[in-house]
Amino acid sequence: MSSVYRLTLRQLTGRWRILIMTVLAAMPVAIALLMLQGSAPSVREFETFVLSAMLAGSIAPLVVLAIAAPAFANEIEDRTLANLVLAPIARSQIAVPKLLAAITIAAPFIAVSAFATSYVAFLGDMTATMAVTIGAVAGVAMYASAFIWLGLVTTQAIGFGLLYIVVWEGLFSGYVAGVRLLSIRHFSIALIHGLDERRFAFGNHPSFAVILVISVVVFGGFLWLSIRRLRQMDVP
Amino acid sequence: MSGAPVIRVDGVSRWFGSVVAVSDVTFDIAPGITGLLGPNGAGKTTLLRMMTGLAATSTGTVTMFGEPVRDNPPLYRRIGVMSEHETVYGFMTGRQFVRTMGRLRGVSDLEKAVDRAIDLVDLAHAQHRTMETYSRGMRQRIRLAGTLVHDPEVLLLDEPLNGADPLQRVHFKRLLLQLAAAGRTIVLSSHILEEVEELAETVLLIVNGKLAASGGFRAIRAALNQRPYHVRVICDAPRALAASVVRLGAVDAVHVDPDGAVVVLSRNVLDLQLELPRLAKSGGISLRRVEPLDDSLESVFGYLVER
Amino acid sequence: MTTQIAGPTDVRTAPNGAGGTGTVFDIGYQRYTGAREGRGRARRAVYTDGLRAALGLGRGAWSKVLPWFFIGLLAGIALIMALIAGAAERMAGPGAAERMNLPSHSDYNGFASIILFLFAALVGPELLCRDRREGVLNLYFVRPLTSGDYVAARWLAFLVVMLVAAWLPQIILLLGLSMGDPTPVAYLRKNWLDIPRFLAAGLVMAAYITTLAMLTASFTTRRAYAAVFLVGLFAITTPFTMGLAAEIGGRTGQVISLFSLTNIPLYVNDIIFGEVSEVTSIAPARTLPKPMLVGWWFAWTVIPGVILWWRYRRLTP
Question: What is the pTM of this model?
Fold first, then answer.
């Protein structure tokens, strides 16, 4: 397992990628700092703008897509997946390390960004800050699981992933309320709400227990699908 | 040698939509070297992939050591596979690659196994360079090392000599013969007929997805007795010899080449072998050379492909 | 020993002095005796191939899904807008669409820009990345084709696809609006200026998006990374620069909001139509002088184009 994990870490990192992710992670922090120059923003303002639009809406899913989808997609394109599949290890011992490696790379950037942004914006309120950070990281985990599976299933993974992020979660969920039930972005935001109800206790979100179950189901479900796919697919 | 075959392919077919890649193929593979031959697009690679469990069969079963290959990861401890694709992890050194392969396959005493595998392919001098600096032949060899590191009982190799220079070819052949002598089962897919001829005791000919012939190639040739053998005779009186040879019952036809060689078509080479020297002696003709023209795999192959 | 593979064709054997024989199999190989066309033909071939690659023609079904989905989506939105306008006219009398301030050609561009950007991000890299990944560029340059020709032909091919994506919906909208109007001919006579306007605005959008997409694609061999980078570029710079601009305000804020990449062609769009569309109405930069906005768009189209051309010059040996 650790071989696959380390191999994937090596495959998914690169100088340029790290640089770009650092810049992306820094952007919300910069805005939060600037927003503070004026008056401290209301939680609602902060949430809708920075969290929803920028962090949860664009930066986190795109970063995770760029890291997680290639985890399998590149191996399939390069025809090196057989090296892993032809080993006497359970298929889960291929899928899980890949997923963990993707999360290991993407999560720190998102976590630090979320932490710094909300720490600044909420003037040091630790509970709120931790709520945002944990919610963001949970979102990363869910996205990673979904996109790892997507990269395994189709060569057009990035295309479908982008469509999902921009069109489904971006456009439609603004207009059609039901879409929220199938949107990782909203699960992540609902988690934040659930974790710190005093601060974030508005909006129409399912209860914390429900959202926790949903998150686990999403994460585990896509992982299970990936394992199943590995067993059933024709490996190039 | 044990009676049970190592690999059993039973009624295997594979289609992609409306294209049939492999059609109802059945054979057994015993220890030793078996050659898988066929023109491009005949279905060799698909068949090989089904034998490794990388691809599913549409119908039929593939078993190895009595167990199904598909969805059976523990079996991979005993199998080594080298695919036709040449891509490697460019950022790794050769040694790291072989070590990773070994670790994934649960090799005990890893460093020694890696050393041994790298020595087998003669890449010890380059093992610490990254693989993106390797030549094509070196990549093939390091991939072979990765395939051998866990000392598998069964080796399935798809076009393993692509891009190998003559020296590497000789080395590789020696290696394969060594491994086969030690009791391993090797299946080799190749276009290069001369090599398969030299290496493989058994040959499987795949044409258009079907098994066109299997067995020793000489035996295959003998089985194709509709087609007469061509035997070329070089002597000092070709037309005289031709005139007397054509009278033999074993001979179907005779023609004389512009360069003076006599080519005899015969369905019964044994009789021809006995009669020819007698004829030459009684006619006072000295025979300089008598050689079969289609005793090679290539001609069998060519004949079957055309059919 | 000579080995022969028996075949139905004739065999010519030529003896040579050293005692061996050379054999030529006449299997019907023929030299090409037709006309050999030059550079223009090569350029056209690269262009056509680019067009087919972008639209997924001559490839599997999956490659057609994305481009045709986008074109369909854009056309569909235009159709819906046209139907709504038509319904409004019918129910509330002529001129109702204008009165109710329903979306017009100008506004359509604002909505569609996001979808066009996504389209370019996903489909654009298809034209350039594949050739570099497979290492076949040298095969192109063996023909009478310079690297400038190659990249220009590819750029043109994608521009045409973008123009179709930009113009087709506008044409549908125009047809819909004129049909919806009780007096179509009068409508057309009154609004004929819309046609050159939306054609120009479409060209502005298409040229800008095409050049940026191609430039990004020229930096990586994997289509996936180019796509994500482009989307990230558009999706993230917009709220970021808008947010910064809102906080800082003033002249600096205006300049900062100029860097919202999705808006750059939309300012020109506004200038062409003479009205501010919804998307740009919140951008501080829209109040900057018009020549500056047009020049900005021009710079962001031409400079990336030059860099793109220069990059491909460097790629050839």
Answer: 0.80
